[in-house]
Amino acid sequence: MRLTIVVMMWGLLFCLSSASASEFFDLPPLPPAEEYGNILINRTSTKNGVKPATFSHWQHRIKYTCRVCHSELEFNMKVNTTEITEFANRKGKYCGACHNGKTAFRHNGNCDKCHNGDITYGKQKFDIFSKLPFARTSYGDGINWVESLKLGVISPAHYVKTKSQDLPFDKMLILDSEMNIIPPSIFPHKAHTAWLDCDSCHPDVFNIKKKTTKFFSMSYILKGQFCGVCHINVAFPMNDCKRCHPGIKE
């Protein structure tokens, strides 16, 4: 019995030591790089006889940080949970904060640019990112957004109308695993506050006090909770274990 347990433990360690987490976890399939981060906004479109609106995170991310949409403009993190209406857009809310004919193309006469139902729409523009620093691996869109920001290759705006307060919080968290054979994950606040506000994660996604978040495990993350709110469909995906667990040997 003990020998069986030891063999199973070593097998688990071998899987986690691999550069690809897909050998151990049931990871969702990844789309092509130019489609990673693209979503279809379809809360009410189809019901009203209109094609879903397509939204490309990478096209917008080069111009604005995540907090612009998810804090200032009040888009929920989870797709299709925000009640976006044409009336609200025309009043300057949500997409209408920028798509007003001044900052970006306005709604009138440009319906097909958004409501096309095509998640690949605009993929030919992905070539403009070829000069950005690329990540160590090609998972997700393959772009190292943190490094791009740090090097000044991109300068996304941090607000549209309401200037936000700078967040110089630079605390590094070491999150120990409950299993000794799995090395700790490292969470750098600075890399996240460069893009987000504190309320993007706290308290709805994570409790503020360390080790008070229940069910914080990979199985829940892969279901879109905790880190999986972003690191499934937009930020770099979970396929590269070493990005979060640097102690894992390749």
- How large a portion of the residues is in β-strands, by DSSP E? 5-15%
Number of domains: 2
Low-confidence stretches: 3-11, 13-20
Using the coordinates shown, work out and report the CATH topology of the largest domain: Cytochrome C3
CATH class of the largest domain: Alpha Beta
Helix residue percentage: 10-25%
Full CATH superfamily name of the largest domain: Cytochrome C3
Strands, total number: 4
Distance between the termini: 30 Å
Q: Which characteristics define this entry?
A:
6% strand, 8 helices, 4 strands, alpha+beta, Cytochrome C3, 250 residues, globular, two-stranded antiparallel sheet
Descriptive report:
- This protein has 250 residues and is an alpha+beta fold.
- It has 2 domains: 15-31 and 143-243, Alpha-Beta Complex (Cytochrome C3), CATH 3.90.10.10; 35-125, Cytochrome C3.
- 20% of the residues lie in helices and 6% in strands.
- The chain is built from 8 helices and 4 strands, in the order H-E-E-H-H-H-H-H-E-E-H-H.
- It has helices spanning 2-16, 57-61, 66-72, 86-90, 111-114, 145-150, 189-193, 218-221; strands spanning 38-41, 53-56, 172-175, 185-188.
- The chain has a two-stranded antiparallel sheet. Strands 3-4 form a two-stranded antiparallel sheet.
- Residues 3-11 and 13-20 have low confidence and may be disordered.
